[in-house]
TrEMBL record:
GO terms for molecular function: acetate-CoA ligase activity; AMP binding; ATP binding. The keyword Nucleotide-binding applies. Residues 11-65 form the Acetyl-coenzyme A synthetase N-terminal domain. Pfam families: ACAS_N (PF16177), AMP-binding (PF00501), AMP-binding_C (PF13193). The gene is acsA. PANTHER family: ACETYL-COENZYME A SYNTHETASE, ACETYL-COENZYME A SYNTHETASE 1. This is Acetate--CoA ligase. It is an enzyme of class 6 (ligase). The lineage of its organism: Bacteria, Pseudomonadati, Bacteroidota, Cytophagia, Cytophagales. One of its GO terms (biological process) is acetyl-CoA biosynthetic process from acetate. Keywords: Acetylation, ATP-binding, Ligase, Nucleotide-binding. The keyword Cell wall biogenesis/degradation does not apply. It comes from the Bacteria. InterPro entries: Ac_CoA_lig (IPR011904), ACAS_N (IPR032387), AMP-bd_C (IPR025110), AMP-bd_C_sf (IPR045851), AMP-binding_CS (IPR020845), AMP-dep_synth/lig_dom (IPR000873), ANL_N_sf (IPR042099). Residues 516-594 form the AMP-binding enzyme C-terminal domain.
Amino acid sequence: MIKAIQSFDEYTRAYAASIADPEKYWDDQAAQFIWKKKWDKTLEWNFSDPDVKWFIGGKLNITENILDRHATKTPDKVAIHWESNNPDEAGKDITYKQLYEQVCVFAGVLKQKGIKKGDRVCIYMPMIPELAIAVLACARIGAIHSVIFAGFSASAVADRVNDAKAVAVLTSDGSFRGTKSIAVKALIDEALQQCETVKTVLVAKRTGDAVAMKDGRDYWWDEAIAGATPVYEAEEMDSEDPLFILYTSGSTGKPKGVVHTIGGYMVYTAFSFANVFQYNEGDVYFCTADIGWITGHSYLVYGPLLQGATQVMFEGIPTYPDAGRFWSIIDKYAVTHFYTAPTAIRSLMSFGDTMVEKYSLKSLKVLGSVGEPINEEAWHWFNEHIGKKNCPIVDTWWQTETGGILISPLASITPLVPSYATLPLPGVQPVLVDANGTVLEGNNVEGNLCMKFPWPSIIRTTYGDHERCKQTYFSTYPNLYFTGDGCKRDEKGYYRIMGRVDDVINVSGHRFGTAEIESAINEQADVIESAVVGYPHEVKGQGIYAYVICDKTDKNEDQLRKEILDSIVKLIGPIAKPDKIQIVTGLPKTRSGKIMRRILRKVAEGDLNNLGDTSTLLDPEIVEEIKKGAL
Ligand code: PRX
């Protein structure tokens, strides 16, 4: 287990040591874990192929560091307080011993179904304990899990299952979200009509709704575990074997499968969890993210459990039965560490302070924010109303590709500045570069955020397409990992993330590529062409604004908009629905045919008088039309 840094002085020394001799620094951290065989070499890397390997030759199973370790040392300690969607339904407290047993039993089910080391298993489930168990059981037998957020459509699921060539899908009959009950298994059935590689589907019971079960493919979870022989022996894995694939959107093409490998990911998620949150014995940690996103992987499943923490896992939504739900959960479990997204803070702020005042929140010690820049208003509200000005807020900057938090205050150690992610963690070497790729030295500079040296949980590849990994992250600037974010370094050397500089939109902390949404819009039969941009949105951070050119049709605009939304819901899911759809007759293009998104962004922002130079456009008239019709 990782021992956290205790003071700012110690952080400064640790940071310096980690830069002077990274291998020694990470050797010492990695030595805190259970390995079946120690690594022979700490690091080999280049950012040109790219090829990064950590703890080379080391053999381990990550779940031994979670289950065997803590089930032996603290068997009766609660690992997960599971809180149901409905506050009147009893939750479940799962101890480390029980988690160990349940994972070993389910690992036995996976083995019995013929799933082997290296096979890909897709998981599409609500936030029920079986989801965490499923993830860990895959890791136990060496299968590569690919969790798909259970808000994606059947078509999006099929794309991901096919890309990963998954042999199995783990799912549930249905799910509860607020007052809604959602048919999860039916969606999987629809998705799997397009997938040939899946041989086994295991279905956990949650809603009890009737579902179709396909003979020879589909099995009930509870029946399968009843007849299973537990697998207590954890599969021996190589440090660089893949642990999981997680699909994420980029500025071009379909979502890509980010691959993380076992050794480095284990060391870095535990390390960053311990240091950023400063979790101590007896604390109760609550991360509101869904396991379908990277935050749920690194700071719900892996980081906290590696460190033997007690945490809350919540099935429901922040506004059910009312907008005080998070606060009631905090009081119920005496939560000390609360980690959420700015979009949730802004949304809950809008319900008024009375929703908060009913609760004491006195157990809280540390607050965390993740997923998007936190604006000052939300920061102050979080600080005053939730933290009662007594809890540091760790504004944690990172990405699916980074595996763990790279820039963040360490709670109660790093001096805070609202809306600043502050300083890099030990081992993290950020650089800012200008548009020409020149590294900006010194402080008080702003540029594109890159990393010049690998940390243990850096992305290794994009599944099945290494060239795409190289092009996306390692080609914009030679020998640097490019994050896609703009960033400022102030006079004190503190980092402030300014948002994406590419065609990625961050809606409520969820990433979408504009091209991905455009291609879903273009599937509607009347659409000729579309362009999507992000614009500032009070609650979601960014909203989605779509400009769409349609063929001549008898349909009115409302009908067209409805059909366009339907197409997006079908191909991606409701989370990618544009907030605004403007039907236009043309798009502002340069003579070479490139869409001038800058102009579209300005119109979407409502900044109609600052469109800049439009003289190079093929048809400047179109800008006037778009301005007139702006929503
Ligand atoms: O733009 C940054 C933003 O979210 C992007 C990464 O998205 P994703 O891979 O989905 O991971 C989200 C959870 C780690 C980044 O490129 N982002 C994330 N955290 C912050 C942030 N922007 C500003 N401040 C943050 N703390």
